[in-house]
Amino acid sequence: MATISPEAVSLALEQVTFGYKPNQPIVRDFTWRIERGESWSILGPSGSGKSTLLYLLAGLRQPEAGRVCFRDRPLNGPNRDVGLVLQDYGLLPWFTAHDNIQLGLKIRGVPPGQARQIASEWLERLHIEHVGDQYPSQLSGGQRQRVALARVLALQTRVVLLDEPFSSVDELTRERLQQLMWELKHELGLTTVLVTHSVEEAVILGNNLLIITEHAPITRGEVLRSPFNGERPNRGDPRFAAFCAEVRNALELP
Fold this sequence. Notes:
Elements: E1 9-18, E2 27-35, E3 39-43, H1 50-57, E4 65-70, E5 73-74, E6 82-85, H2 97-107, H3 112-125, H4 141-153, E7 159-163, H5 171-188, E8 191-195, H6 199-205, E9 208-211, E10 222-225, H7 238-251
Parallel strand pairs: 3-8, 3-9, 6-7, 7-8
Antiparallel strand pairs: 1-2, 1-4, 4-5, 9-10
Helix pairs in contact: 2-3, 2-4
């Protein structure tokens, strides 16, 4: 991959090796650099270690060898500027949507009144202000995912990591959430990294695609660059179909 100046790097894995069990690496001697403001999608077979890459980038796992860096400094644990959105939402079932969004703000010492105002603003911004007093069990999958996004973005997170965030919702809701995420990324200038099994979703939300074709351990990945270059991808555009075909070919999918 191309060399990037340290000032431009948001996140970097430098010759990282990591495994959950001794002598069974999931990632081995892997290097990957992410520039500030980039959007990446990671595609690969199940069990290949895609989510593990996110946990390393989030500071939730520490490498056995090599290092993870954020803004050219070692990342030795979770960082307030790096947020993670999970497939199962990660919402506390005994908190309302409003309270779930406020949780991180209160942990950081934001006064209760201000935390409530910020949460209300994000509920409105994501068009779910009508569910603020409802509990996660009362929400649809799409509403729960919007609450999970609001909880991360309310903290003014600059890097958002997404682990198959839309896989549990119906197709129409999924497309709406993809559109919302694309708009938020460009409006807020976010750096995003998405793990997904959907080729179309990867193309819509990633200007750069990291293709993992080997099962664990991950030692390398092929990088594909989107032809849209920051332009909103359109499923009806011939370039969209052509690039999806290129991605499937890289993944060796029929």
